[in-house]
Amino acid sequence: MIQAFGANTHQGIYRNYNEDRVSVIMNIPKPKTRLGKWPSCSFFAIYDGHGGAGCADFLKDKLHTIIITQDSFPSDPGLALTNGCREAESQFLLLAEQQKPNYDRSGSCAIVVLIVDKECFVANVGDSRAVMSAGRGESMMLLSRDHRPNDDRERSRIRKNGGIVYQKPRIRQDQTRPEFGPHRVNPGHLSVSRTFGDIAAKLSKYGGRAGVIVAQPEVSVFTIDPELHDFIVLGCDGIFDKIDSENVLDILWNTIKKNKDRTGSIHRLSAVMTDELMREAAL
């Protein structure tokens, strides 16, 4: 069912380090401890790390295994995603406290696509995004919701649990009126409202507050229709803050039209599409 994929990551022009990680597993094998029939499983994820790469590295190495070893998998993949994210969060926070000489303060957003036979499950924690092209580019389907502090549902949840949403004013030399930075959450001072990790925002002994910044995923599911569904784009906010979802698909379809007869294979075309989107986002 999956014909090809492309993947790329870059730190951008303002940093000399990259805290993002990508996970692609085309065929997840059946665990040795699992009995019964095992479905065809594919796993794709982007982990948008911040405050260090520790959390993103942990998720890249562990999250898929934690998910597929849940008791509810493969009978209920959606529940396995939810419970797996919860367990991964618990494991990483314990690990973060054990780091010496100080605890690991890193965190990560995650956007995950898990395909089980013909069902596609999308799980989102944070402000990365999944977008699908359908009908040969005639329509766009949003498969996830950005988790940001200025979202009404997120703001309500944050305040209900004792958190604060705020913006800092900033005045440039050529301005008489202040501009405002992104909406942020306290505790944590993060511009995203759901993450893995970020121990200082979550545990009270480090100044955090439970329930404000959470690793609770939103999970959606649909049945794949090869005649209707074209491809899915996963990207972090570094892409979608620069290019809106509709224009992302326009760029990719223009790239297909320009290169479909030149690349020689759909695998090469997928790589060209990925590289072109990265180039456009960097402009």
Short summary of the structure?
The protein is α+β, with helices and mostly antiparallel strands.
Features:
globular, Phosphatase 2c, domain 1, 6-stranded antiparallel sheet, 283 residues, 3-stranded antiparallel sheet, 7 helices, alpha+beta, single chain
What does this protein structure show overall?
The longest helix has 22 residues, at 77-98. Helix 1 runs antiparallel to helix 2. The protein is of the alpha+beta class and 283 residues long. The chain has helices at 54-68, 77-98, 152-160, 199-202, 237-240, 245-259, 266-282; strands spanning 20-25, 41-50, 107-116, 119-125, 129-134, 139-142, 164-166, 169-170, 179-180, 184-186, 196-197, 218-223, 229-235. The chain is globular and about 50 Å long. Strand 5 (129-134) and strand 6 (139-142) form a beta hairpin. It has a domain at 20-146 and 217-270: Phosphatase 2c, domain 1 (4-Layer Sandwich), CATH 3.60.40.10. It is built from seven helices and 13 strands.
DSSP helical segment count: 7
Q: What class do helices, strands and sheet pairing give?
A: alpha+beta
In one word, what is the shape? globular
**Proper CATH architecture of the domain at 20-146 and 217-270:** 4-Layer Sandwich
Number of strands: 13
Main sheet characteristics: 6 strands, antiparallel
Order of helical and strand elements: EEHHEEEEHEEEEEHEEHHH
Distance between the termini: 34 Å
Assigned CATH superfamily of the domain at 20-146 and 217-270: PPM-type phosphatase domain
According to CATH, what is the topology of the domain at 20-146 and 217-270? Phosphatase 2c, domain 1
Low-pLDDT windows of residues: none
Helix content: 25-40%
Strand content: 15-25%
Mean pLDDT: 93
CATH class of the domain at 20-146 and 217-270 equals Alpha Beta
